[in-house]
């Protein structure tokens, strides 16, 4: 199926290598991320080196090379947040969930990303979960928020099974 879709995308852009970014965007829109297999398929279809495609996919931060978690946890690492301990809070989260910034937990429940600034310096340190801002977070409160999401997921699954 992926190869058929890749072929359709390449044909849509008339095999124009200059349209590589929109092709990658279309693939990611369909699957949520760009797999190695998809990049190889695109390389074959366009008859260009895989390294060129990989270079474009890794250069732009909008492209994902791994599946995104159900919940997106974003940590501000701007100057004010950093000075108020954001790096230590992020490290605690990474240690607790055994992931690195940019990574996704094995159960695909959480994706953690660090960003330069979220524009909420007065609320530092700031964490966003699925777009919702949490201000003045500490190591403890950040873990509590994230574990709360995990508990909510388990409760929802149990309710769905009971129905």
Q: What helical percentage do the residues reach?
A: 40-55%
Q: Work out the number of β strands.
A: 4
Largest sheet: 4 strands, mixed
DSSP helix count?
A: 7
* Low-confidence spans: none
Give the strand line-up of the largest sheet: 2-1-3-4
Distance between the termini: 34 Å
Descriptive key words:
alpha+beta, four-stranded mixed beta sheet, 7 helices, 11% strand, elongated
Describe the protein.
- With 163 residues, the chain is α+β, with helices and mostly antiparallel strands.
- The protein contains 7 helices and 4 strands; from the N terminus they run ααααβααβββα.
- It has a 4-stranded mixed β-sheet with strand order 2-1-3-4, covered by helices on one side.
- Strand 3 and strand 4 form a beta hairpin.
- Helix 1 crosses helix 3, helix 3 crosses helix 4 and helix 6 packs parallel to helix 7.
- The longest helix has 24 residues.
- The two termini are 34 Å apart.
- The model has no long low-confidence stretch (mean pLDDT 89).
What's a quick, concise take on this entry?
This protein is of the alpha+beta class and 163 residues long. The protein has 7 helices and 4 strands; from the N terminus they run ααααβααβββα. The chain has helices at residues 2-12, 20-31, 36-46, 50-59, 79-83, 86-97, 139-162, and strands at 71-76, 110-115, 127-129, 132-134.
Give a topology summary:
Blueprint: H1 2-12, H2 20-31, H3 36-46, H4 50-59, E1 71-76, H5 79-83, H6 86-97, E2 110-115, E3 127-129, E4 132-134, H7 139-162
Parallel strand pairs: 1-2
Antiparallel strand pairs: 1-3, 3-4
Helix pairs in contact: 1-3, 3-4, 6-7
